[in-house]
Write a structure and sequence with these properties.
Keywords: Membrane, Transmembrane, Transmembrane helix, Transport. The protein has 725 residues and is mainly α. It contains 27 helices and six strands.
Length: 725
Amino acid sequence: MSDHARPTGSQPIELTDMREVHRTGENGTRQRASSIATDEDEGEDAALPTDPFVPFGDVEPATGSILTFRALIVGCLCGTLVNASNLYLGLKAGWTDSANIFGSIIGFAVLQPLTSYLSSLGYHSQHFGPQENNIVQTAATAAGGLSNVFVSAIPALYQLGLLTTPSKDFARLVAITAAGGYFGLLSAAPLRKFFIFQVSRELGLIFPSSSATAITIRGMHLAASVAYEARQKMRTLAYSFIFAMLLRVVSQYAIGILWDWHIFTWIASTGFMADTAMAIESWGWFIEWTPAFIGSGMLVGMNVAASFVLGSILAWGIIGPYLVSHGLAFGKEAASADGLVSYFSLSAEFADAQHPSPRYWLLWPGVVCMIAAAFTELFCQWRVIWIASRGLWQAFKTRRQKGYAYTSIGGEKIPANEDNIRLWMWLPGLVVVIVVTCFITSVQFDMSVAETLLALTLAFLLSLLAIHASGATDTVPLSSLSKVTQVVLGVTTQGSASIESAQRLNLLGGALTNIGANQACDLMGDFRVGFLLGTSPRLQYAAQMIGTLVAALVAPTMFLIFASAYPCILSTEDTAGDGGNHQCEFPAPGVAAWRAIVLAVTRPESPIPRSSWVFSIAIAVLASAMVLVKNLCTSKWNRIQPYYPNMMIMAMAFTLPSTQYGTAMLIGAVIASVWKKKRPDGFEKYAYAVAAGAMAGEGIGGVINAILSGVGLDGGNFGTTIGTP
């Protein structure tokens, strides 16, 4: 998801401003919410370095081994929680979150008191410092990754009948996930010096979320009242987590009272403007009290939330009704006798150019808009492509000897470090991973070696852009870059293979790009945290390797749990059963977008309605123009940047027939705005804890609901539908 939360251009910002920079994402893309910097002791802001490209000078050095068993265990457990949460959020609305701040706060809150307690009992316990805290966060980030592909490409493979069942395919899902994850990790490892030292100042690569994570870790370890402040922050996060988890679990038994407020259904039940009220209800306009998306709105800010709602209004409040009224799209009556009409079907009857549903018609403008914006962003980033190519070529020509001093674009000498990642640490492993990936894709997915190598090459090249976007704007455009891969692979395989084979290649190639860029961005962000805190990059690299293995096992397992409990995830129809009156709880908008692309580039005939195609071209031109204005006229538009619509998020709303998520995010953004204005100190200290706890809590509650559904104890069997249509 290019996913823009707050455009920063290529200019560096001060570290004191990083607490306001957040990440969001679109369908199946990555959302990294930056930390709320801590201000536990007076004058801390004054102590912050004014140059964001030098390490912190007041961080205590490591006094012992920091790659400890306790750090890895706590980090991987935190990552597992976030991984499960991300699968839930991604299937709900294509939204995922990073475990960077969650892992750093939990790591400190658990291991710092534990170390002190064991020492008070007379046991020798190694001091828990900021570098070990960084290892916890690194392991958490790695273990919390790789879920993105399971809310996009993998379900699309099942919906198109290209795989059998998640339970039967579990081993090969683990294999392809691990292969893609380690490819991204190993291919990005040698780029640390390039992105962290050589071009960071030139391109303004401050990695806002990562820098804010480092500030948070530093602040927790420096604060005079550290124990009290840490306990308060941990308590806030725990309360938020428990509340959100319990609400998600309990609400399924009274969904219309505790979770979804169908206000227009309530109005219709009184007899007042019943037809109009039910017509509005049919377009999905209701309020959902989802802590996860309210928390997400607290982090992403008003621009993203308002863009999301604006896109929903355009798609499901203006364009959709216009299409139906003019006979360009069609709905079907629900089985209930209350006047509801379903406009969101993607069944064979309504996924047709001659008889489309509004959802199918609007899917194409949304996807085409994303692709246009992605290619335009690609064009606007010509400088990073040129600098990266030049830097890599120079590195290839020059044999780096021990003690060699790197030269940044600005001319500063960066001396070599004994902890730097050497050639032997990544190249042999990368060769092995490439060979193994070719073997896996050939044996398990019938892909040729040439096709796999093309997909991996695209994954590496596009991961460079993803890292640049992450460092400069705090966004990771995973979905957009994956769509670029899909388009390229679609062109190269046109007419050269069966449709089924071409579709499988297309989705798997995009999946490899998604996974590889995901891990590459996570690794580079962790290197940025380690650079500021003085953590050994080798030990961070090792923690990432371990965390990636955990993620490769956890992400497919969580997907198996959800797919078993909610089979509709694997279906192209948005209703369950013959009656058609039960909408799938997980609309999975990212999956629909991936499936739409693969159908468009592999079918011999056009699957797109002509009117939809014409509108798609128009909105693509508009999106490209707006991206160009944003990138090329930054100095002239500084004042209106906060009010500039985010085209990626607006386009995402076209693919997501669930207006309640944008509404919930807007509620969260308003809460955050008022809180920050009225109580800025409290907001800085506790806002992220509240939001992170709410997001993780609802995600874990969703996992519990999936388990309850699997054993027949869910709200569908024991709950009430009072208040629902």
